[in-house]
Design brief:
Blueprint: H1 2-20, E1 32-35, E2 38-42, E3 56-57, E4 66-67, E5 130-134, H2 136-146, H3 148-168, E6 174-186, E7 200-214, H4 220-287, H5 292-327, E8 333-337, H6 350-360, H7 362-382, E9 388-402, E10 411-422, H8 430-496, H9 502-537, H10 540-544
Helix pairs in contact: 1-8, 2-4, 3-4, 4-5, 4-7, 4-9, 6-8, 7-8, 8-9
């Protein structure tokens, strides 16, 4: 009779606990899990109240949109338990918060020291003092401001511009000044020397000013200038390509931090469920309605949950440091992200995307500019065996400043104009051979253009098909998560009623965790595919405007 009473009481109490206990499955705030045998593990995220409205997911105009979030049928579900105290965060001033137009303005605390040779020498200089949450737009802006790779590309552009100025200097005449000052001493002469005759010291001064101008009939001057202009254009395209690659890498690093934080949240929910299951299983064993085998299974489940949470925490730390490295922020600041949301929709069809990519990609224009550069090099090498003509003007002055006794000082000057004609009649075929090399380089550039064009089309198609697939995966993963949550509730009710097994509860908990992870991955994979598609097309905002 007592056993029956205890069994009924236990069944009623556990059933009520299952019905009312909140499952921390989709909680956004930071949570902390702590037990007697482990240290606290936390995850810094933004509270749900601070999130922006959830966007909708759509690829084609007029298609039904699907919001990202919990199913409306779960609106009456109990709210998650209160979060633990968050980690220290660096506050963003109100003036630096996201704006509607353009990128966010990064706070000054995220701008690195302007001295690139500065190296920390004490542990305090690299100790993390706080965590700064940033939006994706702010991360991209920081990458453009702080990246060493982008700054190196900009320096290469300035170097090419200086080279162009040097080549354009040949369009102007050159002027030079030469002067000599000579002192000589003449000895005594034994022949015909009279009284008082002999040598002495004399000082002579000579100077001339010469101006020259190359008429450029060989084509060398114009070819050199065109080659320098092509170098500048290649450097500009290199800067554009670096910016696009940096943007994509920053977005991927940002999403990696988001995924790591979401994995911590999911594993925290799994750990909390495993702890609750272990407590219930131990209570059943104490009152005689459970077995030692069920307790061992619950303990194994709890140990696996702890290991998964520890691994997820490590991945979050690595992802955060990778993002901080990408953005080149000061070493005392750690970065975290805002909540996971669908990044947006793609406004073009596949065919329109491919054509726009052909128009916008810097790689295609680089191949064309390289072809023009090789043509300029060909003309420059052929100019070595072509006739050339230059003109010059010269004014000279020569005089005797000091002279021996009996010799009068003199000063003579003169002016001359002329032309200089040069033509290398034979060089052994070297110039023709180098011109042939340039011809082959031109053909190589043309093949590079064709290869880049085909690669760009493949990039666009892969990103587009991945985007469409992940859009469908989001809907599937959301439905699977709702079904897994319902299955876990039923498994707990069946087990408490004595018609289910502990294995059913364990399996349902594991499947719910997997379903939540699949939903997060589907959203982030969609965002990554969208970023890759934007990179494959490039300059989308400029093209659409």
């Amino acid at each position: 009779m007592l056993n029956s009473y205890c069994r009924c009481l236990l069944s009623f109490g556990l059933g009520a606990a299952v019905a009312w206990a909140p499952l921390p499955l989709m909680a956004a705030p930071e949570a902390s899990v702590e037990d007697d045998n482990s240290t606290a593990v936390d995850a810094t995220v933004v509270p749900a109240a601070a999130r922006s409205p959830q966007p909708t997911l759509s690829l084609e105009p007029g298609e039904e949109t699907v919001p990202l979030g919990d199913d409306p049928a779960d609106a009456d579900a109990p709210s998650p338990s209160p979060p633990a105290q968050p980690r220290p965060q660096v506050a963003i001033p109100q003036s630096d918060r996201p704006t509607e137009e353009g990128f966010d303005t990064p706070p000054d605390s995220l701008i690195p020291d302007p001295n690139p040779l500065l190296t920390p020498t004490t542990p305090e200089e690299v100790d993390i003092i706080g965590t700064q949450p940033i939006s994706l737009e702010t991360a991209i802006e920081l990458a453009f401001r702080n990246s060493e790779t982008l700054r190196t590309a900009l320096l290469q552009l300035e170097r090419s511009q200086a080279g162009l100025q040097a080549e354009r200097a040949a369009l102007l005449p050159t002027a030079s000044l030469n002067s000599t000052l000579e002192t000589s001493n003449q000895g005594f002469s034994g022949q015909g020397a009279g009284v008082g005759g002999g040598g002495g010291t004399s000082t002579r001064l000579g100077a001339n000013v010469r101006a020259e101008y190359d008429l450029g009939i060989s084509g060398a001057r114009s070819a050199s200038i065109r080659a320098a202009e092509d170098q500048v254009r290649l450097a500009e395209l290199g800067v554009e390509q670096t910016r696009q690659e940096l943007r994509l890498a920053t977005i991927n690093d940002y999403y990696a931090v988001q995924e790591a934080i979401e994995q911590i949240r999911i594993n925290q929910g799994f750990l909390a469920e495993a702890e609750r299951n272990l407590r219930d299983t131990q209570l059943r064993e104490e009152v005689g309605v459970g077995t030692r085998f069920d307790v061992l299974q619950a303990e194994v489940q709890l140990a696996n949950a702890r290991q998964s949470l520890t691994q997820a925490t490590s991945q979050r730390q690595i992802a955060q440091r990778q993002l901080a490295r990408r953005l080149n922020v000061p070493p005392t600041i750690d970065l975290t992200t805002l909540a996971v949301e669908i990044a947006g929709s793609w406004p073009l069809s596949l065919e329109e995307s491919i054509v726009l990519a052909f128009q916008n990609r810097a790689e295609l224009e680089q191949a064309l500019v390289e072809r023009e550069f090789n043509e300029s090099q060909r003309q420059l090498r052929l100019a070595q065996i072509r006739p050339n003509l230059g003109v010059f003007a010269q004014y000279g002055l020569q005089g005797l400043l000091t002279s021996p006794a009996g010799v009068s000082s003199s000063l003579d000057d003169g002016f001359s104009l002329g032309a200089q004609f040069t033509w290398q009649l034979f060089d052994g075929g070297a110039a023709r051979a180098r011109a042939t090399q340039s011809d082959l380089d031109i053909q190589t550039s043309e093949l590079d253009y064709a290869s880049s064009r085909n690669d760009i089309r493949l990039e666009v198609e892969e990103a587009y098909y991945t985007l469409v697939a992940n859009q469908a995966n989001i809907d599937t993963a959301r439905a699977a998560e709702n079904q897994a949550r319902e299955a876990l509730d039923l498994a707990n009710l069946r087990f408490n009623a004595g018609v289910g097994t502990q294995l059913d509860v364990t399996s349902a908990t594991r499947e719910l965790t997997e379903a939540q992870g699949n939903l997060v991955r589907a959203v982030l994979d969609y965002n990554r595919a969208l970023a890759r598609l934007e990179r494959a097309v490039s300059n989308l905002s400029t093209a659409l405007n």
